[in-house]
Amino acid sequence: MSNWCSPRVRRRPRGKPKQEIAVRSILLTLLLASLGQGAGKWELQYFYDKLDSQLVFQDLVFPSEQRGIAIGTLTEKGRERPVVVLTGDGGRTWEMQRLRETPISLFFLNDSLGWMVTEKGIWQTQEAGRDWKKLKGIRDIAEVFFTTPEHGWAIGGKKQVLETHDGGRRWTGVAAAEIPKGNPKDSAYRCIDFATPQVGIIVGSSRPQRRDEPQLPEWIDPERGKRPEWPTLTLLLQTADAGKSWQASNSSLFGTVTSLDLRRDGFGLALFQFQGSFQYPAEVYRLDLHTGKSDRVFRQKDRAVTDLVWIPGGSAYLGAIEPPGTLMHLPVPGRVRILSSDDLSKWSEMEVDYRATATGVILAAAGPDHVWAATDTGMILKLNRKPAPQ
User: Fold this and answer.
1) Number of neighbouring beta carbons within 10 Å of residue 350
2) Please, which residues have CB within 8 angstroms of residue 125's CB and are 6 or more apart in sequence?
3) Distances (CA, A) of 355 to 46, 97, 119, 148, 218
4) Over the stretch 298-339, which tens digit does the pLDDT of each residue have?
5) Residues 120 and 72 sit within 8 Å (Cβ to Cβ)
6) pLDDT at 30 over 80
7) Cβ contacts of 390 within 8 Å, gap of 6 or more
């Protein structure tokens, strides 16, 4: 331990103590100012704040630095309607349009071509979200992922993994999806990502309802929070040949993988979220696709992480909520917290607009200096790295 942080009481050296203290104070002030400028600030770009209405964002993507698409549900006087919110100038202005079906998730291959999963099907846009065409009426899908304009996959409930070779008009089942253990009615594939067009991962879970499992949420039934967390059967599919073949496996793990971000260098991040009385609300793991090993890089008792993004050549970011009480999963918005790291070992909490509260945060990035966050309370924030004016 260095002397300067030792708990021992040290005598003040002789000389000019007042001048020394003044110099140290100035140096400390300059140091803190430089640290604050380097970290950046998350500033509010869009906030839907109207009387008797509420906007809940479900997903957010930025396929380029200028174009952004956010989908969600707008509730006005008790009536719900699906909407998309668009920007073409990096978030300086936003435009809301109606959708015909309730949206779930988005995937964009480039600046204009993208797909949207809804409760009733899969849609496609070739105009950066300004116009949508329904391709297939199919239910219980969570996400899609495309490696080319024609070749892609759809994953979801009941162990569904579907493949298309015509952009999403026709889909066929992937047989390997049935190999991992677990009853299809209790199983779902939740996350899909590709490090390269050849190497990809699909992750899901299977968790049957137990007879002694409480039906009410923890915030209504406090006794539920005292019961131990039960392991979940994690389902895993891996390909190294662009989906021509999939290696299937499963393992019993605590928590559910809810977010996955792979990089071209063969590394990635996976987010595990927990329920019940588990000591931590979430944990983040680094994945090494070269060796198949993983190691935990983040967990904190008062930070409920809901999404992550790891930018190639840049930092990793975690979007989290600070629970407003002792229970981790209250349906009450908490303060939005965003953490960043350059090495996955030291995480720094960033400055976020004081108005940002939510029960869930979604992250999106178009490069190291272009990162956004959306909330389920109708907010979109952008990371501003510019130093504050002196």
Assistant:
1) 16
2) 112, 113, 114, 115, 116, 131, 132, 133
3) 12, 25, 31, 40, 27
4) 999 999 999 999 998 889 999 999 987 665 566 789 999 999
5) no
6) no
7) none
